[in-house]
Amino acid sequence: MIDRLESAWRATAHALELVAEGVVAVDPWWFAAGLVLHLVHQVVRTRGWFNIIRAAYPEAHELRARDVTLAYLAGAGLNGVVPARGGDLAKLYLIRRRAPRLRWSTLMATFVPETLFESAVGVVLIVWALSQGFLPVPAPGGLPWLDVSLVISHPLLSAAVAAAAGAALVPIVRALRRRTRPLLASLRQGIAILDRPRDFLRRVVSWQALARAIRLGSLACFLAAFALPVTPATVVLVMAAQGGTKIIPIAPASAGLRIAMLGYGFVEVTGRAVDIARITAFSFGVGAALYLTALGISVAILGREFGTASPRRMVERLRERLGEALARESPAEG
User: Fold this and answer.
1) Distances in Å between the alpha carbon of 25 and those of 38, 216, 264, 277, 279?
2) pTM of the model
């Protein structure tokens, strides 16, 4: 957690240094507008997740849309500092505080339909970036070789081994099916909205598509704040650099890759050179601002929830409460 905070601070300091030295000028009004629109985009997106949860639990009238929004914002800020997506557990914990009847396994399953549209958009951004040559492609032969000579030269032996393994697995599979049947039913409940494609499009995808459009507006404001060219192509380029590359393992969305991608991409889509210092300040400045804003909102929400102003105590109490909640829930309850 400390390492990530230090990394964000170094990124912020570097961007501020470029601004202070007069290398880059930033319009504070456009920058503030970008931050506001980014928060609006998050709030709008959570409406889709709320509808997914209500489709799984139509009777959970005690759970309100604003409860889901606050839980999402609190967890989103923690995901930047807590390893292994610990912020997602915080989201589920805060939702269960408002609606204790909801099962952990069912709530975890709701992440599947919630991320479907976002993953599809990420794939489209990756395809577009690759088609434009903005992302590296692994060289042929990069995958490890698999030695199959034994299988080819001894087919009878291979068949016998496969038959024995299959016979040994049959009772294991049957036992697992009996034990996991309640869990599978609980998980299926979490993706219940996918059984109604029209509702999924109308109550989830529509909200997430609107959120994406608002995010495009946010990115356009940030570009204007740093006096970078604002066109549909440059805005999509920034969205691909910020989010699309996170879903592929061949090109980690590192700071260096983002800057290189933006530096090359701006020239290609606008036909004119763009100052690399301005791109660097934009990448570090916007990333750090969004990170620190999300963390600040998370601290405010969790501080109110746990009655403390200390971030360390918030995380400690969250871990304690999560452990207690998970220990109380029996396997039958999911």
Assistant:
1) 21, 22, 21, 11, 12
2) 0.78
